[in-house]
């Protein structure tokens, strides 16, 4: 069967009498209940600029998330199934076939923060991997005294964001527009979006607070408090400033959780090593 004929058969399958939403199961780049965290990990690790996938949103039934890689970050956009159509951005599609054909034409999508992305590469749900496995040659355990309760699964937070912000200088209190990127626990700022090396990297593990700021003669400002300095930043809109504050606060909450878990592990280890040996 030819490729065109096979595609037509797949499209007709999408338009059968079953509910349109049920046909998502047959869409190769629909990832079901994949989490936001996992989607970001997949696209950042294996995707490229313009890679995207569709997944369930945990906000409400009939709402989906389109996760898209934009350079070194991942953006998320809502797709809503109303019961008779799919709504995405400013468009409404009467069938899943129409929705899929829209993506086949590599549409351009713009986010509220000004990022423009061409949707180029659907990320497949099923990815082939080599069946190469090593044989176990050595297998032993270090006698550290740790138990099952010490096995706390952790992963670095993968929420990302980028965009232009206006920053107040440290010594000279002038304001300059800089390109900011938030990746893992680092907030970097660059001279502009095309500059490869950052001017500075801020380690969020050292940040004690993120909050709106009303002390500057500017609107949409917020600040990041570090032991050595408070950084004052301004966004173009209040919505954008609120987005930065929310994701930075979320990052810091994840950092505190991680530090709390690490502290608990260290305390349990120190308790173990401080126990007196029998007869001593």
**How many helices in DSSP terms?**
4
What is the gyration radius calculated from CA atoms?
24 Å
Q: Report the sheet with the most strands, covering strand number, pairing sense and barrel closure.
A: 7 strands, antiparallel
Find the count of extended strands (DSSP E, 2+ residues). Answer: 15
Succession of helices and strands: HHEEEEEHEEEEEEEEEEH
First and last CA, distance: 81 Å
Specify the structural class. alpha+beta
Estimated share of beta-strand residues: 25-35%
User: Which stretches are low in confidence, meaning pLDDT under 50 for 5 or more residues running?
Assistant: 9-18, 265-280
Q: Based on CA inertia axes, which overall geometry fits? A: globular
User: Strand order across the biggest sheet?
Assistant: 12-11-10-9-15-14-13
Task: Please give the share of residues in helix.
Answer: 10-25%
Rounded average pLDDT:
83
Question: Can you walk me through this structure?
Answer:
The chain is α+β, with helices and mostly antiparallel strands. It contains four helices and 15 strands. It has helices spanning 3-14, 36-46, 96-104, 238-274, and strands at residues 51-56, 63-70, 73-81, 86-88, 91-93, 108-110, 116-118, 121-122, 161-168, 175-183, 186-190, 200-203, 209-212, 221-225, 230-234. Strands 12-11-10-9-15-14-13 form a seven-stranded antiparallel β-sheet, covered by helices on one side. It has a six-stranded mixed β-sheet with strand order 5-4-3-2-1-8. A hairpin with a 6-residue loop joins strand 1 and strand 2 (63-70). It is globular, with a radius of gyration of 24 Å. The termini are far apart. Mean pLDDT is 83; it is low at 9-18 and 265-280.
């Amino acid at each position: 069967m030819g490729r065109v004929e096979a595609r037509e058969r797949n499209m007709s399958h999408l338009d059968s009498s079953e509910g349109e939403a049920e046909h998502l199961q047959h869409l190769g780049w629909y990832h079901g209940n994949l989490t936001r965290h996992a989607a970001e990990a997949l696209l950042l690790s294996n995707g490229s600029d313009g890679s995207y996938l569709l997944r369930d949103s945990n906000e409400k039934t009939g709402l989906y998330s389109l996760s898209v890689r934009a350079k070194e970050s991942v953006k998320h956009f809502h797709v809503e199934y109303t019961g008779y159509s799919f709504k995405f951005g400013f468009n409404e599609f009467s069938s899943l076939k129409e929705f899929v054909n829209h993506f086949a034409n590599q549409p351009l999508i713009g986010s509220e923060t000004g990022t423009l992305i061409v949707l180029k590469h659907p990320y497949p749900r099923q990815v082939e991997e080599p069946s190469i496995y090593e044989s176990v040659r050595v297998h032993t355990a270090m006698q550290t005294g740790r138990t099952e309760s010490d096995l706390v699964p952790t992963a670095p937070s993968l929420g990302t964001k980028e965009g232009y912000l206006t920053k107040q200088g440290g010594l000279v209190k002038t304001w300059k527009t800089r390109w900011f990127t938030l990746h893992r626990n680092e907030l970097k700022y660059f001279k502009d979006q095309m500059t490869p090396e950052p001017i500075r990297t801020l380690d969020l593990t050292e940040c004690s607070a993120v909050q709106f700021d009303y002390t500057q003669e500017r609107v949409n400002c917020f600040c990041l408090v570090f032991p050595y300095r408070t950084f004052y930043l301004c966004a173009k809109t209040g919505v954008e400033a609120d987005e930065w504050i929310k994701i930075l606060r979320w990052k810091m909450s994840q950092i505190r959780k991680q530090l709390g878990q690490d502290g608990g592990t260290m305390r349990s280890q120190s308790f173990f090593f401080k126990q007196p040996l029998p007869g001593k």
